[in-house]
Amino acid sequence: MASILALLSAVLWGSSDFEGGRLSKRYPAISVLGSTQLISLIFGFALVIAVGETELTSKVFFAGAAAGLFGYLGLICLYAGLSTGKMGVVSPISSLSVLIPMSVALIGGETMSTLTAIGCALAIIGGVLTSGPEFSKGISLKPLLLAVGAAIGFGSALTFLAIGAAEAPILTMVCMRVATAFVTIGIAIKKRGFGGLGKANLPSLIFIGVADFAANATLGLAVNIGPVAVSMVLGALYPVFTVLLAFFILHERLHKAQYFGGIAAVAGVALISAF
Predict the structure, then answer these.
(1) N- to C-terminal Cα separation, the chain
(2) Residue 266 pLDDT exceeds 80
(3) Closest C-alpha to 112, from 246, 229, 240
(4) Is it the case that residue 139 has pLDDT exceeding 70?
(5) Cβ(272)–Cβ(230) below 8 Å
(6) How far is CA 44 from CA 71, 143, 200, in A?
(7) What pTM did the predictor assign?
(8) Could you tell me which residues come within 8 angstroms of residue 126 by beta carbon, excluding any fewer than 6 positions away?
(9) How far is CA 247 from CA 77, 81, 235, 240, 252, in A?
C-alpha cells in the first residue's frame, strides 16, 4: 500500500509540474507558485476539517514549517537555475534530492534487501535520465550551484516531511503551506499582485494547488505506513510522468536518454514492488 501511495504522489507531482510549467510560460513562475501555494493551503484546511486531524504538536508544526521553507528555497533555486537556460544540467542534478531523505532513513536504521536496493538505484537513475541530462557543452558554476541548492532544498523538505508525517501527515502539509503563505504574501505585496493571473487561470491554479498538496499528503501517508527510503525513491519518479504528459499532450520529442530513463524507472519499480 505504501508503494502505491508513493507512486500516486509521483503521478500527482508530475501532473502538477506539467500544468505549472505550461502556465509559467505565460506568467511569471513566482506568481504561479505563490498563487498555487495559497490555494493549496485553503484545500489543506478543508481536508483537516474533513478528516478530523486536529491535534497539532510542536514537532509536527516545526517539521512542517521547516519542510515548507526548505521546499520554497528549492523551488526558487530551481526556477533561477532553469532561467539560465541550462535545463539539462539543473533538472537532473536537482532530482538527486531523494538521496538526502533516503540516506537519513538508512542511517536511522532502516534496512532493505539487495534486490530492493538495486530497484531503488534503477529508479533513481531512471528519474535522472528522464529529466533529460545534457552535459556535453560543459557545466558553468552558476547553474551548478543553483541545481545543488535545489537538490538540498527539496531533499531537506522531504526529510522534514517524513518527520512530521510520522505523527500527522495532513497537518504537516498544512504547516508547510502556512509557512510558505507568509513568503507568498510578502512577494505579492512587493510585486503588487500576482503577475497578471486572473479568473481565467483559476481552474489551472486550483488543479496545481490541489494536486501539489495531495502529492505531499500521499507521500506523507506512504512514509507513515511504510519504509521511508523506498517511499521517497518512488515519490521521486515524478519527472517520468511530467515527461510522459509532455510527450502525449504537447507532442514533445524525447531524447534517447529519456527512453532509457523510462525503462530503468519501470524496472526499478518492478523490483521494488516484487520484493
Answers:
(1) 13
(2) yes
(3) 229
(4) no
(5) yes
(6) 17, 34, 23
(7) 0.86
(8) 237, 240, 261, 262, 263, 264, 265, 266, 267, 268
(9) 26, 23, 21, 11, 5
Are the CB atoms for 167 and 57 separated by under 8 Å? Answer: yes
- Render the burial of 107-144: b for 16+ CB within 10 Å, e for the rest: eeeeebeeebbbbbebbbbbbbbbbbbeeeeeeeeebb
Q: What are the residue boundaries of the structural domains of the chain, listed by start?
A: 2-274
Cα–Cα distance between 231 and 67 in angstroms, integer?
Answer: 17
Residue 163 C-alpha cell reads as 518527520
Cβ neighbours of residue 177 under 8 Å, at least 6 residues apart?
A: 37, 40, 41, 44, 68, 213
CB-side exposure of 42: number of CA atoms within 13 Å? 12
Task: Examine the pLDDT at 28 and tell me if it is beyond 80.
Answer: no
- Per-residue pLDDT at 150: 87
| Distances, alpha carbon 20 to alpha carbons 78, 97, 150, 172, 178, in Å | 13, 20, 17, 23, 20
For residues 43 and 52, what is the distance between their CA atoms, to the nearest angstrom? 14
User: Helix 141-165 vs helix 169-191: angle between axes, to the nearest 10 degrees?
Assistant: 140
